[in-house]
Amino acid sequence: MKKYTYTILAFLLCWTTACKKLDTLPPSIVKDDDVFATAAGIQAYMSRMYSELPIEDFRYSPERGLNMFWIISPTSATTGEALSRDQNGSMQENTGLSTWGDCYRVIRDANYFAETLPKYASNFTSDQVNNWLGEARFVRAATYFALVKRYGGVPLVDKVLNYPEQSIEELKIPRSSEEKIYDFIGTDLDYAYTNLPETNQAGRASKYAAAGFKSRAMLYAGTIAKYNQITLVDGGGNRLCGIPAAKAVTYFKAAYDAAALLDGKYSLYKKAWAAGDKNAQYLNYVNMFFDASSPENIFVRQYHYPESVHGYDAYNVPRQLMGANGYSSEVNPTLDFVELFDGFPKNADGTIKTTTGGKYDLYTNTVDIFANAEPRLRATVVLPGDVMKGVSIEIRRGIYTGPTAGGISPLLPAGSTAHYPTDNIVQSANASQTPYKLPNGTTMNPAGLSGYFTGDGTNSVSGFSIRKYIVPDKPTSEVLENRSDQTWIELRYAEVLLNRAEAAVELNALGQSDKSYLQDAFTQINAIRERAGADLLTGTADLSINVVRKERKKELGFENKQYWDMRRWRVADKEQNSTIYRTLMPFYSANDGKYFFDARLDERNSRYTFDVRWYYEQIPQGEIQKSQNLIQNPGY
Amino acid sequence: MKKLFYSIALSVLVAAGSSCKKVDNYAAPNVTLKGTVTDAGNGKSLQTEQGSGTRIKLLEISWSANPTPFYISSFQDGTYQNTKLFAGKNVISAEGAFVPLVQVDNTGKTIVDKSQTVDVKDVTTVNFSVEPFLRIEWVGDPVLNADGTITTSFKVTRGTADPNFQQNVSDVAVFVNSNNYVGNNNYDNRYTPKLGGNDANNSVGKTLSLTTLGGALPGKRSYFIRVGARVSYGLNYYNYTDVKEVKVP
After folding, report:
1. CATH topology of domain B31-130
2. Which residue, A62, A191, A380, B25, is the most exposed by fewest CB within 10 angstroms?
3. Which pTM value belongs to this model?
């Protein structure tokens, strides 16, 4: 016992000699001097800000939030672009997430940077300093944009807040008007445009990224001024929700002018494109998402295995290309999305034509019905039977064994959400199938390798699968969670052209004629259609706001943009009002030896209803408890 | 050594156990607040949507001049009740498909304030009389046709003369559902007929008849029918009739 006492005493004695300097920071704390004195330190600071920038990329979904690796409830399955077994309805962003707080942390980082860098300006050239200050403003503007598109007017913080130097009362900053936030974003992006370089390291903003973001933000502001009907005014007369309709023209013009700044600086990706060659146009469109030198990329977020990764391939490949984690086919494009495109048989109302005279049309292969489909559709969606990674993606609902003399009548009445009758249909509950013996003696699995399986849903539930952004040559051994590292293109030139066209058509509708807006919109839309391999517009008479919006849906599908577009157009509650989306189910007719298609409502009966309140999302209750001056949005 | 350890552990436990002398004896909330939101024009309770329709807003000013609001959702027949409130002084108003009881102009000044300041205790009843945007009346009962569809006749009129609330009627619908919770947030769109745009806006003041969609309705069950219409204002709340049941044999 005594021995221990001495040992402990001796040990404690050592301590008394150690305390030479008491007032010193632990070496594990990074100080301003370490960061701001060198370009490398600043790059590290930037890298953190960019990585936390709230953009909706591979690592985002409304259910799971920003910068989340596990995206199995994809954004596109809330908008009607796709169906997913893990996302069965429309939603506002999950209110349990910390988006609000995370955004203000990035804003603080940007403000801190802008306030601290000038103290170290002597270490750098003035160009360097200006570029970096421009970047900080870009980051701040993009972050405010993420806030304003969710919540409307938010507290405007343009400097570093300090506690306890400032009192709690002082820090309970109330919300600014929505208009003021958009103006603030515009000013920040103008500053960024002036100070940023022509080109920048990939993943960082150039001056044109700032201009492109401005065209996006101002377009949002313009459409809200024009279409919003919700008002919330605080006691000081600040309109927290909504923008006066009179401001629509100002914002649309700002959007149009910002988009025009990129003229001649960027172009649509057409490296493998060839006029009249649908296959080349298809390949070109697929390649666009993987070419680091694409002249269309304006602002990107890079990933790199193993330090910074996502799981897009693992979650979304068709079932037959499933990797070892057991995930697949989370994004299955709806027939509604596919029907936006041209190049396959259609009824007068624009829906796909699968019957003639009340009997199903027959095809030798499932892909035949889409033989002349628009190249952009093939490049966005895996059509049933089309090839991916060298294999034909087999999607089949079941085998029809009934009589075929005189043709096959529709299996279900139009508009039915019932399951198919099983008397004449063989189907599979899951991927372990029992082959069916066909009349010619050969055997065939009832369902395709990628579905449809009636039991477990781990398959193409819509009859389609997603191709956009799926790496075409990734070996199945690497189709794993946290193993994908393709670059996310947050802003590409096609969007800027669409922003420009939309602003132009809106300006024309608002009676503005200082430029030939309609003609300009016509040019931009046709540029996009030409690259896509779609039918061109023949004249400005064809052009309406719905044409522009439809083009935007097609071009930017599955890029997490439509989620916000449906909101700012204020059409989400119309589009999603007890809506069931449509699917296309291929069947093999055993006696004909051919395929037929049944277009039907989602068999799983997922109903989508968008609540009008969600145009302005709920401010987290926790934030209001912390800062009681925040006024909640209407209806919550 | 072991003995020492156990005796220390035991004394800690005893200390921890005996330190809790004060129990949380604040009485559970037991105050009831209830009431009805009625249509000032005809004195009937104002029908609404379950969950996203009328709600009662409480601002408890006993403690703070700027409290966080507390809401009570109303039932779909326009009544509301909450039996688990604390007693206190509240400023109470209602929100829904009617002329707002509290209106703020674009400078932030309150121009209309019909909220009620009430000492809520025991069982308190607070009723509201409001002017709905639209008033929808049945014209006879829904009829089951020979072809298996259901035809509903009704009339939509303006419920208020306030010039600020004469917005266009954007939607009129005869909502059909398989249970009596029926409305814009809960209906079957395979059967529900709707009017939009000019058709909806021109419907005001006329007797309309709409027939269910999708041909003959599947039989051997009941359908619950309710007419709704809304104007383009704010959160686009619907006004409704009450619910009627049609049995299809």
Report:
1. Immunoglobulin-like (2.60.40)
2. B25
3. 0.88
